[in-house]
Amino acid sequence: MEIYIIGASFAGISCALHARKLYPNAKITIIEKNTMVGFLPGGLLLYLQNKFEKLSDAVFVTEKQLEAQSINVKLSEVLLDCHPEKHEITTNKGNYHYDKLILASGSEQKSMNIGLEDDDEWDPSFKNYDLSNKILDQIQNAESIAIIGAGQAGIEAASTFVDLKKTVHLIEAMDYPLFKYFDPDFLVPFLSTLKQQPNLYFYLNTTVTEVAKDKQYEILLDGQTVVSDYVITTVNVHPQLAAFTKKFQLHSDNTIQVNDYLETSAKDVFAVGDLIHSPFQIRDESVYLPQINHATRSGVIAAENLLKQEVKFTGGLRTIGTKAFGWYLASTGLIEEEAFVYKNEIAVKNFTQPFSLTDKTTIYCKVVYEKSSERLLGMQLLSKADCLEKINTAALAIENNMTLDELMQNDHFFQAEFTNVMEPLNRINLESEDRHAF
Ligand SMILES: Cc1cc2nc3c(=O)[nH]c(=O)nc-3n(C[C@H](O)[C@H](O)[C@H](O)COP(=O)(O)OP(=O)(O)OC[C@H]3O[C@@H](n4cnc5c(N)ncnc54)[C@H](O)[C@@H]3O)c2cc1C
């Protein structure tokens, strides 16, 4: 069997590795337009934080590791067209016949028409190695940087640049940052830290109309101009728009339509990762979930289904965990702000507890649940202690339709340095204040 995979990132590589295990005799080839495989999308920031010695070390897999698994990697090669009727693809280097084709060409951020598109020195995004390498010197030398978009990537970038003593202008169209994952009331302690940063200037409810470059970059906002040494965009990602995608049925946002088994409208062609919509496990609809864990799992499930429909892809819950400005932030599932998208009435609970018996750092918790059944639908966590891992337990509870009473009985470890007497999920339904003494 001849398997071709387009895109050597999380979805494509996880698919290739799992396919290698399932089909030992298959010939597996990955086609990647960049010059290296497996670069971490936040690799530039991690390098600037001295977490890696070289920028090129910020990878989750290497070409060598793939080749050791007999996975053939073709770098600097771009898929130009697909011919599903002939089981053929065309790249800038030739035509290939496939038995199974997996489209894993992911997403990009270059969606803004802000006037600098023809400037060769400027690249707004740093998602892949080539882009990160291209802008590295400019980022390092910049004393001031404007960031357009205060989602997870924008907030992480702002935190990194502020730590590096740069002046940061953070511009966001919504009225608070991280709006996809958190309710505004829940973020109050975090927002108050942001306000105290002397080098951070926040522009909320603000859209960028144009960016011009003279000696510095001039960012025109509604009614004011911000001047900075560099500008990056960390706005929403979108599927890579390429001519070949038109060969498949698409959603209105240009994601490729797939069935439960990740098959596209063309026989023997699958699509995975940031190219597709997936079921959002607590809403009866599919949504765009551009996240690494989602991409990786979808790659694995596509590999499972290459020969016949074996395993349905179950989608995700938009689970995130991050650290910025000294705070650990995590979220999964539904937030109160999007209650209108849920079919039934919801309720929420806010509570706090110390991280452990020896570390009294507060963990702020908010849960969203279905009012009638008390089924858990979402959880948000915020703390200066590392509580991130707890969000994965909450995600598992939501996936398993657990109610607050059932969670009260959920088994967790206790160790005085690392836990409280009861874990946040155990205690949601313990109403009485005196039982909340710990
Ligand atoms: C700055 C930033 C930070 C992020 N941090 C996180 C995070 O911490 N956690 C998280 O969960 N998510 C994060 N994300 C989102 C995450 O990057 C994506 O969800 C994930 O990379 C999707 O993986 P993928 O394999 O589907 O696609 P991608 O990672 O987009 O990879 C697609 C690959 O296909 C290649 N390609 C595209 N078109 C072609 C073509 N025509 N021919 C050949 N090759 C092609 C591309 O070069 C690329 O290597 C971040 C995103 C950004 C922009």
UniProtKB/TrEMBL annotation:
<keyword id="KW-0274">FAD</keyword>
<comment type="similarity">
    <text>Belongs to the class-III pyridine nucleotide-disulfide oxidoreductase family.</text>
</comment>
<keyword id="KW-0285">Flavoprotein</keyword>
<dbReference type="InterPro" id="IPR023753">
    <property type="entry name" value="FAD/NAD-binding_dom"/>
</dbReference>
<keyword id="KW-0560">Oxidoreductase</keyword>
<dbReference type="Pfam" id="PF02852">
    <property type="entry name" value="Pyr_redox_dim"/>
</dbReference>
<dbReference type="InterPro" id="IPR036188">
    <property type="entry name" value="FAD/NAD-bd_sf"/>
</dbReference>
<keyword id="KW-0676">Redox-active center</keyword>
<feature type="domain" description="FAD/NAD(P)-binding">
    <location>
        <begin position="2"/>
        <end position="297"/>
    </location>
</feature>
<dbReference type="Pfam" id="PF07992">
    <property type="entry name" value="Pyr_redox_2"/>
</dbReference>
<dbReference type="InterPro" id="IPR004099">
    <property type="entry name" value="Pyr_nucl-diS_OxRdtase_dimer"/>
</dbReference>
<dbReference type="InterPro" id="IPR016156">
    <property type="entry name" value="FAD/NAD-linked_Rdtase_dimer_sf"/>
</dbReference>
<protein>
    <submittedName>
        <fullName>Putative oxidoreductase</fullName>
    </submittedName>
</protein>
<dbReference type="GO" id="GO:0016491">
    <property type="term" value="F:oxidoreductase activity"/>
</dbReference>
<feature type="domain" description="Pyridine nucleotide-disulphide oxidoreductase dimerisation">
    <location>
        <begin position="327"/>
        <end position="410"/>
    </location>
</feature>
<dbReference type="InterPro" id="IPR050260">
    <property type="entry name" value="FAD-bd_OxRdtase"/>
</dbReference>
<keyword id="KW-0558">Oxidation</keyword>
